[in-house]
Amino acid sequence: VEPGAEWVYIDSIQIQGNRRTRHRLILRELDIHPGDSMLLSELPERLERNRLRVLNLGLFTNASTYVSRWQSGNCLVVQIDVKEAWYTYPAPVFELADRNFNVWWHEFNRSLKRVNYGVNWFQMNLTGRRDLLRATANFGYTNRYELAYTTPAINKAQTLGAQMGISFSRLHELPLRTEDDKPVFYTDPNRWLIERRQWNAGLTWRPQFFDQHTVVLEYHRNTVTDFIAEAQPDFFLGQQRRQRHFSLVYSFVSDHRDIRPYPLKGFYSRVDLRWNGLLPSDNLKLGRLRAEWRQYYSFKHKLSTELIGAARVSFPGQKIPYYNNQALGYGNDLVRGYEYYVADGLHFGLFKSALRWQLLDRSFQFGKIIPLESYRTFPLKIYLSAHNDFGYARDPYYQSGNYMSNRVLWGYGIGLHLMAYYDKVARFEVSRNDLGQTGFYVNVTSGF
Fold this sequence. Notes:
- The chain is mostly beta strands and 448 residues long.
- The protein is built from four helices and 22 strands.
- The chain is 7% helix and 54% strand.
- A hairpin with a 4-residue loop joins strand 16 and strand 17.
- It is globular, with a radius of gyration of 24 Å.
- The two termini are 39 Å apart.
């Protein structure tokens, strides 16, 4: 840098290591471009921010951004080096049929009969545009066959994307009702109790880096046996055996997180508006609006906080099928400490908070022991976490015999979180709920 220089100028950006991923895709994610100028004091922060943007594509196991050459006139060349991940995953399937690992481990005694097996084929980055082709063939406790394709860029400006998929599944087991805040299942190993067919097609629009709009048209056709319709007349309402409907879904996402799999700074907001029943002949008429906000703050001494708020309302507020009455306790809409319970309902609200302290941030080198070069460097981060959650589900129609709906749920505890290869996170937590129950829970996620 020339003596006394305060401003620097980007002459060019060079990328290395992207054997399949297209240059244009990576450049689209950056907030620096040739010809830009910035204060010299801002340069390190800008380089790190763009390194994380490249990693947030989910295509690389590692990335580095640095100045490779200084030229006269305070001009510089920015170098981006990436290590591409393994994009083809013909992986065997071994997954649980239950709501989460903890329910399977404790309530069903780790029964291997409640396991789905088969093959998942993931072809990531199929054409170098971050597109994904996924094929699934699951057998065992549940049969599921699925074919789906998504691409984020179908136009030159890389602002318009598309998605499409088709699936078929069938189960030997169904919950007929909820008692004591737990689904009561009926099982028939000789008959498929429900068959589900679904297809979808949609478009995404990403005019700016942080914001994305998605519109999806879906078709659902679910069929149960005569026994299910008779044993639980409200399963589809009116003792019906079939539930058939077209749905239209609009989603808006604004993602400002620094590290998407385990954020430390920034925020994430999402709004989903769904209407089930587009045609007069559709036998499910149900609208739902769901909103979510996640806020992350980073402090000194390796401390950070996570604040999550989510809410869903259903309309009109009339009685809906039991099959569609899920609220808290499914997926990520969960009050920690209540992993063994569900709170059904039309509407719900959820607030989750956590204080995290980083214990370890280190990379381990495995050398040629690992055959894939991209995975020979093993980055590992470990966090100590303390969490505190509240939730409420409103169930005006199916609350009889259940305690968790229509009351505030509270859970708190501590945990150890491990983050490896940037996008693989394992959470080991001890949580206690306001019923005085304490448990140890495990949650593992991979990807974005």
